[in-house]
Amino acid sequence: MVTLVLAACAAPTPLPPANRLYFLARTAEGWQLATLDEAGAVQPLLADVTAFAPGAPFAVVTDAEQTLALWTPGQKGAPRPLHRCSAPCRAPAWSPDGQWLAWVEGDPLPAPVWVMQPDSGDARTLGLATGSPAWAPTGQQLTWPTAEGLVIADLAAGTVLTLPLAATGQPAWSPDGTQLAVTLLSGPAVIVDPRTRLTVPLTLAESPMQAEALAWSPTGEWIALLRQSFSAPPTSDEPTHEHEEGRGALMLGAQPVLVAAATGVLQELPGDPAAAFAHPVWSADGRQLALVQLPLGQPTPQPAVWLIEATTGRVTARLPGAAAPAWGP
């Protein structure tokens, strides 16, 4: 059970628009925080970063995944330590008003969800998570999947709601904060209304499909979905591979598609049959989608970040040796 006893909040201070891409870039010394300049060139910002959340300031995880710190682009000196984690810090995320920072502390999952008000240093756990937390875009509601269901905690009201959904990954809120898109452990993705608890399938696809990750566009029109599709088991007359024997063949790693939120109709996006995709994130204006491409079948696969123009479906950039894209000011 999650119990909330939280301090009163100050007046909201919304974070700046998030239309600049940030990501982790691999170097010989490890991962560093980087961005793209106006010419599209990679600009390194801060070394020894294993996770981050853009904001004002940035939340960054340094020191071998153990220290959560604050950092402002352009500042001199090291980031200001905020919290020493007892286990690896994962998935930091700012609330829309910039008052609260949430993260998962531990590996593997399930692991505790933490929240903190950096101004006061007040940090506490809210329970165990089996996926990543996500803030509602319109307030101080935080949701995350657990073994008991999908938890929605309202930090302002001090209330907790648990929906009986076997969810996984990171939920995706609609821009108006009234609905959630969720991937289920059983494979499909659904849209749920927390007020009515009504759940409907996200897509109209008839073939078997495993949903891997979701991201709802800021315009509300589209939901980016990473899907794995399966074929029927091979017949005795069909060629097969050793890893496919005795079951339906996995055709591709997770590939990106757009789903119309109102109709469930799919729109294909460029993909790579020799890779799997992960971590889709939208720019604040809804014009661009960034996601991670990870080659399959390689001993030491090197991730890359792809940028896709939402209106045309055109790939506008491929950033090798990059991971964990996020949009910020």
Mind telling me the C-alpha Rg? 20 Å
Order of helices and strands: EEEEEEEEEEEEEEEEEEEEEEEEEEEE
Strand content: over 45%
Mean pLDDT: 89
Kindly summarize this structure in a few lines.
This protein has no helices and 28 strands. It has about 325 residues and is an all-beta fold.
Structure description:
By secondary structure, this protein is mainly β. Helix content is 0%, strand content 49%. The protein has no helices and 28 strands. 39% of the residues are buried. Mean pLDDT is 89; it is low at 5-13 and 238-249.
List keywords for this structure.
single chain; 329 residues; mainly beta; four-stranded antiparallel sheet; 49% strand; globular
SSE inventory with pairings:
Elements: E1 20-27, E2 30-36, E3 42-47, E4 51-53, E5 58-62, E6 67-71, E7 80-84, E8 89-94, E9 101-105, E10 111-117, E11 122-129, E12 134-135, E13 141-145, E14 150-154, E15 159-163, E16 167-173, E17 180-184, E18 189-192, E19 199-201, E20 209-216, E21 222-229, E22 255-260, E23 266-268, E24 275-282, E25 288-295, E26 304-309, E27 314-320, E28 322-328
